[in-house]
Amino acid sequence: MEIAPALQIVLFAVFAAISVLGALGMATTMSMFRSGVFLMASFFGVAALFLLLLADLLSLLQVMMYLGGMLVMILFMVLFSSDPGGSMMAGMMTMTRVEKAFSRGLSRPSPMATPHGAGGGMDMAAGHDMSMTTPARKWARHFGWAVAVVLSGALVLRPVARATERALPDPRSPERIGDLLMGKYMIAFEGAGLLILLGIFGAVLLARPSERPDPEDRGHLRAAVDAPPPPPEEG
Amino acid sequence: MSAVPLSAYLVVGALLFAIGLYAIVAQRTAVMVLMGIEVVLNAVGLNMVAFWRFLRPDDYSAQIFVIAIVTIGAIEMAVGLALMMLIYRSQRTVKVDDFEELRG
């Protein structure tokens, strides 16, 4: 199936914008939950770009593994953190323009929240150090810009030599990938399986209930779990 | 023929890489740092698939490499989150600034 060139350019522009803006939203918004959702959008954009590049198995794997697996893990961890919605954070920090754009609708104006100066992103509110970013944010922004400009400039000014262009959409590409995995790259395949096994062992071992007590704020949850069930009602 | 040149895909990869790098350096909680790492891995995968498509579309080894990258990224995120939970239990904080001591 051959797509018209104009449509190719339009689709590329749309999905590239989704990828980049999703990643930007992930990096700058004040709400951790929104970060997860922006990351989801970025993954979708990259999966669509994979489709445009005729790597169909990879795009589906991207959706399944990143979105179906890792993003769920990320959202679980976000929900276990403090202030996942970001309204407390957004109410307290002074944000740059980009951050404000991605954090719209988060903060509710309250008489308590007085905006503190954003000296390098450190905020002290009632002795609590609340901030989304480390003190390194100031030069990290410049560093990120520098990397983006240098790489993009190098690519635009010294374009990659005219590459050969003979790919047609190959409907049997998953078969070929499977052949390679089972044949030439069997060791890598088995090695990845071993690595996953070790990762599972490691993660379960590290996160098992240890001799260290649970934090105090989880004490009531532990008590609720350990308490004997209420006696059944009579009648 | 692809109407979109190779450089365009590489520029998108470069932008994603830079944004992921900013997230890794500037975010304060370990979960956000791991999200930044995922964005960087995405950018690398995009570069690989773009080069595969334009230079060696007959050899599918590049796609297998991307599968390996995604797999290893998933594993390191799982282990990283487990580590973060363990550190939270002993230090009561998730801010990476406070992970300063190499103490048991």
Describe what you observe in this structure:
The complex is a heterodimer of chains A (235) and B (104). Chain A is 60% helix and 2% strand. Chain A has 235 residues and is mainly alpha-helical. Among the domains of chain A are: 1-105; 172-204. Chain A has a two-stranded antiparallel ribbon. In chain A, α1 (5-28) packs antiparallel against α2 (32-52) and α2 packs antiparallel against α3. The longest helix of chain A is centred in the N-terminal third of the chain and has 25 residues, at 56-80. The termini of chain A are far apart. Chain B is mainly alpha-helical and 104 residues long. Chain B has a domain at 29-95. Chain B has three helices and no strands. The relative contact order of chain B is 0.13. The model of chain B has no long low-confidence stretch (mean pLDDT 86). At the A-B interface, α1, α2, α3, α6 and α7 of A face α1, α2 and α3 of B.
The quaternary organization reads as heterodimer
Average pLDDT metric of chain B: 86
Largest interface: A-B, 87 and 75 residues
H-E string of chain A: HHHHHEEHHHH
Give me the secondary-structure category of chain B: mainly alpha
Number of strands of chain B: 0
Question: What gross morphology of chain B would you assign?
Answer: elongated
Report the β-strand fraction of chain B as a percent range.
Answer: under 5%
The computed structural class of chain A is mainly alpha
Distance between the termini of chain B: 58 Å
Shape label of chain A = extended
Radius of gyration of chain B: 17 Å
Number of helices of chain A: 9
Could you report the average pLDDT of chain A, rounded to the nearest whole number? 76
Biggest pleated sheet of chain B: none
**Percent range of helical residues of chain B:** over 70%
SSE order of chain B: HHH
- How are strands sequenced across the largest beta sheet of chain A? 1-2
Which stretches of chain A are poorly predicted, pLDDT < 50 over at least 5 residues? 110-129
Contiguous runs where pLDDT drops below 50 for at least 5 residues of chain B: none
